[in-house]
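Key idea: predict the complex, not the pieces.
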Amino acid sequence: MRNIAVKLSYDGAAYHGWQTQRGEVTVQQTLERAAERVLGHAVKITGCGRTDAGVHARTYCAGFETDGTIPAERIPFALNSYLPPDVSVSDAADAPPDFNAILSCEKKEYTYRVVISRVRDPFLSCRAHFVPRSPDAERIAAAAKAFAGTHDFAAVRSVGTETRTTVRTVYWCETETCGNELLFRVCADGFLYNMARAIVGTLLYVSEGKLEPEDVPAILASRDRRLAGPTAPPGGLYLTRLWYPGPVGAMFGGGKVSLNF
Amino acid sequence: MRNIAVKLSYDGAAYHGWQTQRGEVTVQQTLERAAERVLGHAVKITGCGRTDAGVHARTYCAGFETDGTIPAERIPFALNSYLPPDVSVSDAADAPPDFNAILSCEKKEYTYRVVISRVRDPFLSCRAHFVPRSPDAERIAAAAKAFAGTHDFAAVRSVGTETRTTVRTVYWCETETCGNELLFRVCADGFLYNMARAIVGTLLYVSEGKLEPEDVPAILASRDRRLAGPTAPPGGLYLTRLWYPGPVGAMFGGGKVSLNF
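Result:
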């Protein structure tokens, strides 16, 4: 049995997230159907994480097993011929037998895109969160530091998914100004349900003066979701970088990927 | 009676072009409906040109008359509250009594976006034309020169719209490389039906060796649409700059507008 890893990207606007759900169109189901047509057998695809409805992936890793003989380098073209234009596979490789798209993932980076504009940009509809005024970068930077490190992140997760533990390690939580955009970058060993969006929503609350930067450590310590800021809208969130060991890691450029939107 | 000029932009993917047509969703009709809700009376809107189905406008000028008293600076916000997210009004001004969005337009620039990639980018679906290999920039530049100047452009227009004359003046027809994109920029005093896309299709034929750069003057002189290249797909085409005299011209920055896509 071969273990295949594929690299893809998708515009999540039309999807009810990654994970297959009854009665909803999801990326996983869309990819499984394309793989079944290519491989000629039923395929169970594992993703590197569950993105929510409307969340995008600039980069994503999915894995599946097959006894088919199609060369790995032909898989992207073959899958793309059965995929809709908002999902695109760019690379594929034979992975080690113990590779698992979610369990082997060492860390992930999400980028949240805030566009500062009083007028909506029709080309960014469902692809960014619009705010009318410049967020307060200093207040945000002061608050963002509190998320870095190993913490119990229960205060910034939505209930709905079972997890063994709500402790995660955030490697960085930073912002970057790029023209009229403010990009929030959060890298962690794993993300709880809605965690990236709740962190951004909390930082925007700090920017607006609804919370103080120095409140954030106590909010985290409380484990109380009601004390943190709201969950920012899904359209601004993109999965932007993935880190894996070995040959699959090389496919993802050791985390170095283009961050153009 | 006031004569109002508005500046807008739209993602054309979901529209059957600018101009109202029976049974099709168009940008004109969408804007007229929003204006009627804002102004409380029927509104006939004139656009700066007919963009085809699926063609985009980074910038667009539309005009209408009203006896309403709403201040011009409140019009963008008021219209946007009734417009879908893929159409957005960014500015409005009281225009001189003789202003007409199409007749007063001195020149327009269209930009055609070709992305060089063997893999589709899901975020550019319906927003760019993908080619697997780098076009031959030297051959294209040599051929593009032939379009500049005052010519009869009947060889690069599709039949379907009545016009008094098929003579137009092209101020420039150039390409620019931008990362893995090749941008075609064509500026003219007016465009015939499908003219920008037929020019791009002809230049891509030259790049591929299906036509020679030195064939282009004879093709133009023939006035025979069958001799030129195909009409490039609509999703790559954007209206990017407009020039008007007087106060409306100032609203369009004297042709200087951001060309970010």
